[in-house]
Specification:
single chain
């Protein structure tokens, strides 16, 4: 996200309830930002892939690049470190298989552990940024759809289909947009209101119109859920760039600063930090919770500091002529 957008985003985040689902900036690329922040004990938010290879002729299934389904390191390769605006994002491509009449594939994650329900009754929208080529479906998988009906209705997920363009765009999926896909057995009867209190996972998948040899090139970043607080998922932190909901946003220039012989930052606001020389050839190990680095541990000259905030926004500060 551009620096000029940070303060505007900060005001919005500080004045409303929201949870960053994934901004792809946490150190564990195979886990969502939400899962990482819940801690290792929660065993939450791990990404996975799925496809149609078990539904049709052997060897003719839909191809995913990188292969998130059959490779243990596939999702790590699907997270691009720099997606053109200085931030990481998810990038996956799909080629429709010819072995099944209704080719499909996608990636997804559980909010919590496998089979655990989340009550999203207060959720009003999900926002994200995306670009690419083709159409994809943003799915909310609920127990009501996946488990409470017989097998033939399993595919009647709740969600919205989006058309991608070559440049990054902001998208908002409102509650009113969340419906079963067209043509599904429950398309005319199921509603979000009867599913919202037992939601389990999110899927990003090929669209219902995806056909053999069709392509989908999906780049996506900054998935944020609005109208909820971290406690909905069992979290205890306060989301946003300030340490309290409703407080004024922390000025960007004070997030990371050079004070005397130390580089300091607010450990309650900064989620992760990368300090390097301006060429990026020397990276300084940092302990975010400590809140500072002494000059003895820093290279001389100019420094480039990339701080990821608790809201998922990113700021870059350049310090010149470190004494």
């Amino acid at each position: 996200m551009r620096i000029s957008q940070i303060l505007l985003a900060a005001v919005a985040m500080a004045s409303s309830n929201s949870v960053v689902l994934d901004d792809f900036e946490d150190p564990y690329k195979g886990q969502t930002t939400l899962g990482w922040r819940l801690g290792s004990g929660a065993k939450a938010g791990y990404w996975y892939g799925y496809d149609d290879w078990n539904h049709g002729k052997e060897g003719l299934g839909t191809i995913m690049v990188p292969d998130v389904v059959h490779s243990d390191t596939g999702f790590l390769r699907a997270v691009e470190d720099d997606c053109g605006e200085g931030s990481a994002c998810l990038h996956v491509r799909f080629l429709g298989g010819t072995g099944y009449a209704y080719p499909f594939a996608g990636v997804g994650f559980n909010f919590l552990g496998e089979g655990d329900d989340v009550d999203l009754s207060t959720m009003d929208s999900i926002t994200f940024r995306a670009k690419g080529k083709g159409s994809f479906r943003f799915k909310l998988m609920t127990r009501h759809i996946t488990d409470d009906f017989d097998r033939k209705n399993y595919w009647a997920d709740m969600g919205t289909t989006y058309r991608l363009s070559a440049t990054w765009k902001n998208f908002t999926m409102k509650v009113s947009d969340i419906r079963p896909q067209d043509g599904a057995p429950l398309a005319d009867t199921a509603t979000w209101q009867e599913c919202m209190d037992h939601t389990r996972k999110i899927h990003l998948a090929t669209s219902p119109t995806f056909k053999a040899r069709d392509t989908l090139d999906l780049w996506i970043d900054d998935l944020v859920m609005h109208g909820v607080v971290p406690a909905v998922f069992g979290g205890s932190w306060i989301e946003g760039p300030s340490t309290g909901v409703g407080k004024p946003p922390v000025p960007r220039e004070t997030l990371v600063s050079l004070r005397g012989s130390r580089l300091e930052w607010d450990p309650f606001v900064v989620k992760s930090l990368r300090v390097s020389d301006v060429r990026g050839s020397v990276v300084v190990p940092t302990e975010v919770r400590r809140g500072w680095i002494g000059s003895a541990d820093l290279p001389r000259g100019s420094l480039l500091v990339r701080a990821v905030l608790g809201s998922g926004e990113t700021t870059v500060t350049r310090f010149v002529n470190l004494p």
